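Look over this entry.
=====
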Amino acid sequence: MTFSKDSTQDRSAFAQTGDARGVARVSRETINAIAVAVICIALLLGARFINPALGSWSQVETVLVLGSFLVVLSFGQGLVILTGGLDLSLPAVITLGGIMATNWIGMTDPTAWYLLPVVLLACAGVGLVSAIGIVWLRVPPFIMTLAMSIIVLSALLGYTRGSPRGGSPDAATALMKSSVLGLPSVIVFVIGFVIVGWLFQSRSVAGRYLYAIGTNLDAARIAGVPVVLMQMVPYVISAVCAGIVGIMLVGYSNGATLRMGDDYLLPSIAAVVIGGSSILGGRGTFLGTVGGALLLTTLGTIISAIGLQIGLRTIIEGLIVLTALLLLREELFQKLGSLWR
């Protein structure tokens, strides 16, 4: 499709094309979500032959609680990848959110829940600086977000002198330890988060803009998309999501460390890609990302429960992730079909 600078008709055509692609995304989204759910259930049922406790409802709750961190984090990373970027500052921002929650709120007034938005605002500031460097100064996302990660972690090291102090704010503890209608509160929170995230990415005008930018930046600019603003928004949202995860981790473990976010960077990228997103941008759905996050969590939980050695665990996890990634790619079946023909 080409766009003229007399863009009234072009914008209408662009919107109609976006709606048509939206229908296709719903279909792919549904297929990915179902496929990943089937794989998760198969893993749990298969693990029961090794340990009957692995397929119990308590084990499912454990997977959902542990997966909540990756679900929230992967939403922001997915938006960044959707526009063709990558956010490597997530571990540092997770640590920033956790340390601010413990050293600032937990040590002074654990009941001050109204200070938590200030923590998220500080995390958003890190994302905004990354966005300015990437969009305005044309620094590659890999370099800019990595540099911000180093800066933030170094500042936190100096601030804490290597030993973060304080406990969890009451609101964070309640989120991770209390129950609502028989379910852990964090599961209820994540269900609401998933609904809002899905509506934003797949059903809002801003979400369509992000798909357009990831598909063809020049065409999106000609069509009237506010390219500069919409390129910056994902990095800010990603940083806020990382801050939320930092607060959640503090509520879960009642403390913060300087390495608390290190284990989540690569899984956040893997969850997005397994969920059907293209690492080059322009394609992906949040429900698919949620499925990828839960698949990785289920896999990690089962492998840990079996008690395998760390080397063998890593090999098996990598092979299963690769297999799942291939099975969830329709291009694989198209190529196999063409070879058969």
